UniProtKB/TrEMBL annotation:
Organism (species): Luteolibacter luteus
Keywords, in A-Z order: Hydrolase
An annotated GO BP: N-acetylglucosamine catabolic process
E.C. number(s) listed in UniProt: 3.5.99.6
Pfam families for the chain: Glucosamine_iso
Protein name, entry field: Glucosamine-6-phosphate deaminase
Enzyme class label: hydrolase
PANTHER family in the record: GLUCOSAMINE-6-PHOSPHATE DEAMINASE-LIKE PROTEIN BT_0258-RELATED (PTHR42892), GLUCOSAMINE-6-PHOSPHATE ISOMERASE (PTHR42892:SF1)
Domain Glucosamine/galactosamine-6-phosphate isomerase: 3-230
InterPro entries in UniProt: Glc/Gal-6P_isomerase, GlcN6P_deaminase-like, Glucosamine6P_isomerase, NagB/RpiA_transferase-like
Amino acid sequence: FPDRTEASRTLALELAALIRTINESGRPAVLGLATGRTPLPFYGELIRLHREGQLSFAKVITFNLDEYLGLPGNHPESYRAFMRRELFDHVDIPAENLNIPDGMVPPEALEAHCAAYEELIRAAGGIDFQLLGIGRTGHIGFNEPGSPRGSRTRKVELDPITRQDAAPAFGGLENVPEYAISMGCGTILEARRIALLAWGAAKADIVKEALTGPVTDQVSASFLQEHQDATFYLDAEAGSKL
Ligand code: F6R
């Protein structure tokens, strides 16, 4: 796409149509959602479609990819706060349909919390549409290099590059959490349709590696090459090395 606005608009229209089709078949649509800077124009388009009366989230269930460990839901950099601010507060999604890992889960309850998250996804019928960004380490969710293809929701350690990229938002590297809870590569790859967004020249190298390099656990996004319905939505800069 020439720019992120056009890419976001195209995908938002696709997703609105998918939600309508699934709802018309008599069941809620199950979405996997991402945070970070990348999805902002996309969420803006979804909100616009909702305001124009073209898209309802009344029968939508969402699962977020990840959450920082140690951040309460009311911390402005928590992904729970992010999702409220950037999407949920502006659309008609029922509060009980939102699922985000709990960053304040005590260590002794962490494993059970992650297993319960996986079970909730299963019980909802699996993810119809998974939105992804890509980190400069090639991560999807927070599946940093070395995350196995079959990994599930679990505690993960953030790569130094990922923490560096988050430092400005946290007002310094020392404030960036070291750990997160993330859906695994296996969890993500089970989604029936996947859309990965990437904008800007800083993502061009890793986009090229993910799409045209070897399929390897050193670049989690490369696993998408083997998915039957995954699409990369790129602006001109992010696609400039292809
Ligand atoms: C966010 C997530 C991450 C981001 C990635 C890109 O929920 O799981 O994989 O998508 O770190 O972040 P931005 O969009 O800020 O460049």
